[in-house]
Sequence to fold (179 residues):
Amino acid sequence: MTERKEPSTQNALKVRARAKRSKPAFVRPESWRYDKFSVSWRRPRGLDNKIRRKIKGWPPGPSTGYKGPKAARGLHPSGFEEVLVHNVEELVKLNPETEAARIAHTVGKRKRGQIVVEAKKCNLRILNVKEVKTPTEEEPKPEEAKKAPAEEKTKEKKKEEKPKKASKKAKTEKEAEKQ
Fold:
């Protein structure tokens, strides 16, 4: 028999993406019939269940035939293996060529900043960090730029406003003062 050639990681990622497009959305059996059932997948266990028995005309259920290539399983779409990081010590152990860090959601702001700084030093990729642009001194902040024209408009409107008509009570009070 001929041996199968192992696909490269990038090629495997492309194959996985192509297979994912043709994979159906697996919905919970009878979720379209009853409002009390959510559409999130639940394994059918009944004796007569049509999806479990793979009856023609019923939606498909998950099976091993929908798996992606073995080389691409568990990889991030960027091609790196995801590693959950809680502190700087765990970050230092990573291989920058094959692994990318994902900072745990329980990590606070201060430690998250330390992890980001250390990752830049080690040339590591962090998957869940948003790049924040710091405004330079020459460029005005967008908030200030928006406020300035708005303030000018409100000043102009105040100048253009006509004086309000006096109420009946005010008129009677003025007449009483004159007498």
About this structure: The first strand starts at residue 81 and ends at 85.
